[in-house]
Amino acid sequence: MAKYDIYASGEPVKVQYLDFNIGLTGVVTSTNATTLASQLQNVSITDDAGNQVGTTINQPPSANTCSTANPNTSNLSTGGTITAATVSYADCFGSATSPINYIVPANTTRVLSLKADIETTAHFSTIQGNLSGDASNLQGMTSSKTSGMSSVSGVALTLVNSSLNVSQNNALGAQNVSAGATGIRIGSYAFSASSAEGVNVNTVTVQLTPNSSTAAFQNLKLLVNGTQFGTTQGVVSGQAQYSFSGAAFNIPAGQTVNVDVYADALSAAAGTFSPATALIGYTGSGAISYTSVTNTQGTINGQNVSFGATPLLTIAADSSNPPSGQIVQNSTGNSLAVFRFTETSNIENVKVTQLTVNDLVNNSTTVKAAFSNVSLWNGSTELGTAASPVWDATLSSWDYTFNSFVSPLLVPQGNSVSLTLKGDAGSFTNGSLSDNTTSTFEIATSTTVVARGATSNKSATVTLSNATGNPQTTLRTILNVAGSTVTPASPSLAQIGTVTFTANAAGDAQLGSLKLTFGGNAMTYATSTFLSTVVLKNSSGNDIAGLGNATTTATATTKTWTFSTSTPIVVTAGSSYTLQLWGDTSQFPAQANIAQSLSASIAGAGDFTYLDGTNQSPSSVQLPTNVVPITITSLSGGVGQQP
């Protein structure tokens, strides 16, 4: 009922007696007298060292003569009859003439617990245990000095009529399921023990479809924390009651345990069951009192379960879709698009057995199919490979159809799976690839997707939501561009950066044009002749325009080189070619209190072009948008200095 700390400071202290009182509220009296013993018995005090303090009062009130005569006693007769709804029972352990001589060691705290048995006939509302306080019940074992103890009140505790409450588990809502589905959770109940004690439950009784006699389920079973309780009921019928019993499961005091009802749906199940189950009984016992616990709440309805709905499948472009890019001939395993498949009805898993992906190209059959060995992957698992592409004149696309899957394409109930489309690029060299072909992969038509409920085998409704990848351009070769800053030793005509072109091993490339955009606050103070000093030189230090490799044009902030086709600069397959960027930084007068900066970059995708070959009419190609801008140089100077 309560705990109290008692501390002996400096010397051992002898407790000679302890007076206490217990208050009860809400005691219902009737024509039949209510006694204190019918509410509580076996009152005692023990300490945290395992010692009992005084003698247990088996049937209160006792005949003890206390040092404080009946402290705080009210509405209680000498014989223990309660005369009102609120009562204060006072008693003691020991007295001045009959001490208990309980010793608290020096400089030690003992925890005293006031305890009682609560009778099965108890019907009070609250109970509170208090130490009454005594004037001279303490004596120092060394000094022999005496002192008293102040009164200490415990906390009012509430009597619960039942130590177990059961309700529908609100974490599980109404279920929308498919006929023929197995292992469905058709009901869930929250078993909550009071804070007074835990409960051990050994029997649970469930009524199936209490409002309908229609057969809809089989293989009915209970699971407690994922472990089956009792025996599976194989053949069941509507409105029948089924009891499950086994080794008792425990609901700890103040905690909740969920009891779940599972079943398989019959293939002919249809309609809505409101509810699918009802909990009508349980038996058990209190973990401390061993008092019998049974259902006094009546029928507790579970969740509704509905059949007959159609699974829904939505297909969309995934956020991990590869960006628009360039793919070189003869490359394998290229990621072409990522599609996200989502089951949105939360009814059942959906299996996809057929699927067509469209490669949207120009409206011309002269454009060859750019890819072969087109396959779908779930992470590192290949699901299947499409058949050879077929031209679709209606959509102007090459169609890749998956008629079967090596590994099942299964979309989890109420969840998503992202699938990557991969393919091998064709070869311009052997004639299986049209140069500079742009492919956009899309699932364009829902009717080409065959999807069914994994359990019910019902056709799923398929919805497309922008199920389109980003454009991918296939080329004979690809030229990568990188820039690097070179800081001149002093403001003068000197190298300020490099631009390096690296050709893919698939083939040679030829430079087309290059426009550099100059920026930074230094351009505000530059002389009008700065851009005329800007040149590109080869590794031998020769101006490429002076050698006839290019012609130049300029604006206030840009300079463009158009490379010659008669004396071309060719980057051979698998190699790099570097040009030096030169300029006269002395053309930037120093400015007081200003730190100057200068940059040069390839600002836009079209600011650099190249030919993806040197023969057979190569295509003019520009950079992908996701790689620009590319910085060629970035110079800066301190305050009052040139960059």
Shape: elongated
What top-tier CATH class of the largest domain fits best? Mainly Beta
Poorly predicted ranges: none
Strand content: over 45%
Main pleated-sheet profile? 8 strands, mixed
CATH architecture of the largest domain: Sandwich
Number of helical stretches of at least 4 residues: 2
Kindly state the mean pLDDT as a whole number?
92
Radius of gyration: 44 Å
Oligomeric state of shown chains:
single chain
Question: In percent, how helical is the residue content?
Answer: under 10%
How far apart lie the N and C ends? Answer: 84 Å
Number of domains: 4
Class computed from helices, strands and strand pairing: mainly beta
Structural features, described:
It is a single chain. With 643 residues, the protein is mainly β. The protein has four domains: 2-158, no CATH class; 164-306, Sandwich (Immunoglobulin-like), CATH 2.60.40; 312-475, Immunoglobulin-like (Sandwich); 479-639, Sandwich (Immunoglobulin-like), CATH 2.60.40. It contains two helices and 53 strands. The strands form eleven sheets. Strands 29, 31, 34, 35, 36, 38, 39 and 41 form an eight-stranded mixed β-sheet that branches. It is elongated, with a radius of gyration of 44 Å. The two termini are 84 Å apart. The model has no long low-confidence stretch (mean pLDDT 92).
